[in-house]
Amino acid sequence: MFGGNAAFAFAGRYLESGSDIAVEITTLQRNDSLGFKPISGADNIRLRGRRAGERYHFEGGTAPLAGAPFTADIAAISEEAAPPAGTNAPDGIRDGLYSLNIRMLDGIDSGNTGLMVLHDGTIRGGDAHFDYVGAYSSAQGRWKGELINHTHTPTMGQRPLFGDREVGIGFSGTYDQDGADGEATALAGKRSIRFKAMLRRLA
To answer: What is the pTM of this model?
Structure first.
């Protein structure tokens, strides 16, 4: 299991037994510029839950927060718009969980952060408001691919750059053992928006 949010990433495993699911994850602070403070010893989290229709409901906690348990609800990202997997050569980009940092180009003062899971030519990822599905091909230090960006949670009154519409994105760039970069173009209606993305491998 891989995931995270604007400040933290996590990696772990899950075990299904009948209708019950047990999860163990380790968290990693990946972005310390947002004011979030890690709690000492709270980087190992255990969850227990079960499937409820099309969603999964979990309850859990961690030893330093024994008096403050929490719940988590998980819903699957729609796979309908996902492009077919690309070709990842033997020397291609490494599978794993990556942090994503975006900076807009062409004089647009904006950016974003998120997480991506790269696996066998496929991309899955997102952040607090968006999810994306995509595909890539990579070989000899170069990679290229495409994404579909979709809004899963309203942006709370902010004016999102993509107007909360589903957006197609194409990109190309370079990679090494530690991460990747690329320039991308998003087509939002009749508007073409360029940005630069930096990926850092976390797990």
So the answer is: 0.82
Maximal CA-CA distance, the chain: 54
At the topology level of CATH, where does 96-201 sit?
Lipocalin (2.40.128)
pLDDT of res. 4: 82
User: What is the C-alpha to C-alpha distance for residues 49 and 70, in angstroms, rounded to an integer?
Assistant: 12
| Rounded Cα distance, 159 and 188, in Å | 14
| 124-170 pLDDT, tens digit each | 998 888 899 999 999 999 999 999 998 888 776 655 566 667 889 99
* ∠ Cα 161 163 167 (to 5°): 85
In one-letter notation, the amino acid at residue 91 is: D
pLDDT single digits (tens) 68-80? 778 888 888 888 8
DSSP 194: E
Strands (DSSP E) found in the chain: 2-4, 8-17, 20-29, 44-52, 55-61, 70-75, 96-104, 111-119, 122-126, 130-139, 142-151, 167-175, 179-188, 191-201
Q: Where are the domains of the chain?
A: 2-75, 96-201
**Dihedral (CA of 133, 134, 138, 142) sign:** negative
Per-residue b or e along 166-190, where b marks 16 or more CB atoms closer than 10 Å to that residue's CB: ebebebebebeeebbbbebebebee
Q: How far apart are CA 106 and CA 98, in angstroms?
A: 25
